[in-house]
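Section 4.2 – Deliverable D4.2 (structural model, holo form)

The reporting period included a commitment to supply a predicted holo structure for the target in complex with D-mannonic acid. Inputs used:
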Amino acid sequence: MPADLPRLQRPSGPRPGVGIVHLGLGAFFRAHGAIYIAEAMQSSGGDWGIVGVSLMSPTQRDLLKPQGFAYTALELGPEGETAQVIGVVEDVLVARENPAAVLVAMTDPKVRIVSLTVTEKGYCHEPSTGRLNRAHPDIVHDLAHPDAPRSAPGYIVRALANRRAAGVRPFTVLCCDNLPENGRVVRGVTFELARLIDPDLAGWIEAEGRFPSTMVDRIVPATKPEDVERLARLTGVLDLSPVMHEPFRQWVVEDDFVDGARPDLGAVGVQLVRDVTPFELMKLRCLNGTHSSLAYTGYLAGHETIAETVADPAFAGYVRHLWRAEIIPTIVPPPGEDLAAYAAALFERYANPAIRHRTWQIAMDGSQKLPQRILGTIADNRAAGRPCPGLTLAVAAWMAYVGGVDERGRPIDVKDPLAARLKALSDAGGTPAARVAALLGVAEVFP
Ligand code: CS2
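Output (structure tokens):
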């Protein structure tokens, strides 16, 4: 890559005011919610500029700051690629470096929305129940130091307490993670934490706060160094933090915002509904459920990406069986949706050779994903007396995967908050039956 390339700069022109603080400024939100919000402002105006927050690492801030926090979104379709420069992020804060600055931003009366993509593990909840995990180290810290929080729920509670003390209306909490009834999960952990800190505050949040649920969908593989080089060759400009994404996108949002304050999302294709639940169940089970099933079985079979996995006839047959026989029968179609057509479109999305979505990446954090992606579907099949060997195989593959050794005896780099415990249980199990029994005993995962 030529050394003298010009660095990407923010597009010129007037800047909107900041109206949103986003916790967890990762690739997915920058390729999904941020683009919708930028388009909504182009379409209908409004001060919905975004201050991003990285809860832990300074990496995103250090990469984006020299570019004026602008970045390129590269759409990778089967027929070709399209680059778009996104300039909706006004600043990026690093919470671990300066928690006070994050709280100042979240307390600003002009900030009407706090959105989140902190991944399933970022809510400090128990995946099997949705309740706050009070033993979580960050929650233990936040209860002892509520004015300098570490967890996402801790920041939400403290910022809402500051707003209440200042006579400022609460912000809307907009969850953009793959959790069932994600708004209600965030609402629940926020209430529980607030009650433990200040019951009057919890009452105020309950009366005045809004936590709409959303369903988010776009396949966004992690950006790799070769993506940066490929983009530089395509555009002649150096962008050190681009995002790669598929053409497809969908955002379904419950239209329940504090004082109705939000960008004009309906103008740019966001579906604004009263109840997201049917859309969310369809997506979590049909997409994320098969994603995780293919991730563990595909990885163990030696396939590096989802596209490679479904190019294998055995796995193409496997995933089509999952949709037809084990997943779609458990779902009531949302209004206007044809589930067979939805699954067929998913297959084409998975087969997109331009998207190198690694099975290893999707396999991350399985203990936080399995309940809503696979176990709920198994439970519904069992209740209906319907066998589900395909999903059971996916759970077995997850159990083999967390054992940390693949089918060729090579080590697996298992990324999961419970990785050490899962490996210890697996190792102590001895026989396969004993390993299964030990892992089924992990109550945070298996209700
Ligand atoms: C994937 C999701 O990494 C994963 O767990 O299943 O990020 C998936 O790509 C998105 O939910 C698609 O909308």
